[in-house]
Amino acid sequence: MTDEDVLIVQADSAETSRGWATLGTRRWRCTVGEGGIREDKVEGDAATPAGEYPLRRVYFRNDRLVLPKVRLPARPISERDGWCDDPRSPTYNRLVHVPNDWSHEKMWREDGLYDLVVVVGYNDDPPEGEWGSAIFLHIAREDYAPTKGCVAFTRNDLLELVPLIGPKTRLRVLTHPATEQAAAPASDADMKPLEDFDEKDW
C-alpha cells in the first residue's frame, strides 16, 4: 500500500475538531467528532473512531449534485433510506428503509450534509456490541462545526476527493493531534548522532 492509498486524518489539537485529511500530496481541511478521536468509541459518544478502515461505497443526492466518476460502488439516496443506529437491531449499522421500528437516522436530509457520503468500514464486518455506527465521510457545515463522529469536508473538497479513492484506499484516523506530534521528543534515531559525538570533535 502506498501513500496514495491511505487517507490520513488528524486533528489540529486536542481542543478542536478541526484538522486535515491528507492523501498522497493532496490535503483538505476537515472536521471530526465533537467527542474527539477515540480508540474506545461507543454508540452515542459523538467520537470519531481512531484506527485504519476501508472505504465501502458512495451514496449521493442526484437531485442536488452531479457525481464525478468514482471507483467505489455508488448509488443515489432515496427518501426511504435510513441508517440503523440501534445496537439491539439485527440491522445495526446497516442501510435500512424508513419508516423503521428501530432507531435510525435519515439519509435524505434537508441540510445538505448527506448530499455526498462515503461509508467507512467501521464496525461493520460484522457489526458488534455498541461500538458505534454510521461513520461516514460527508459534507461539513459552513463553520466546520464538529460532527457526531464522522469526518466532514466542504462540498467542493469532498467532490474533489471521491474520485481519488477506491477499493484499496484506507482511512487512517490518528489519535494524537498535530500539535502533540510537533512537540514530541526526539526519537532514538534522532538522538543517535549525539550519542556518537565526542568532545574531541570540537
What does this entry look like structurally?
The chain is mainly beta. It has a single domain, classed as L,D-transpeptidase catalytic domain-like. The chain contains three helices and 14 strands. The strands form three sheets. Strands 1, 2, 3, 6, 7, 11, 12, 13 and 14 form a nine-stranded mixed sheet that branches. It has a three-stranded antiparallel sheet with strand order 9-8-10, with no helix packed on it. A hairpin with a 2-residue loop joins strand 2 (18-23) and strand 3 (26-31). It is globular, with a radius of gyration of 19 Å.
Can you give keywords for this protein?
mainly beta, about 200 residues, single chain, globular, three-stranded antiparallel beta sheet, disordered C terminus, L,D-transpeptidase catalytic domain-like
Q: What's the CATH class, please?
A: Mainly Beta
Radius of gyration, taken over Cα atoms and rounded to an integer in Å: 19 Å
Element string (H = helix, E = strand): EEEEEEEEEEEEEHEHH
In percent, how helical is the residue content? 10-25%
Query: Structural class of the secondary structure composition?
Result: mainly beta
- Total domain count: 1
Distance between the termini: 45 Å
Oligomer: single chain
Give the second-level CATH assignment, the architecture.
Beta Barrel
Number of strands: 14
Indicate the overall shape: globular
CATH superfamily: L,D-transpeptidase catalytic domain-like
The fold-level CATH name is L,D-transpeptidase catalytic domain-like
* Helix count, DSSP H or I runs of 4 or more residues: 3
Largest sheet composition: 9 strands, mixed
Poorly predicted runs are 190-202
What is the overall pLDDT average? 91
Strand content: 25-35%
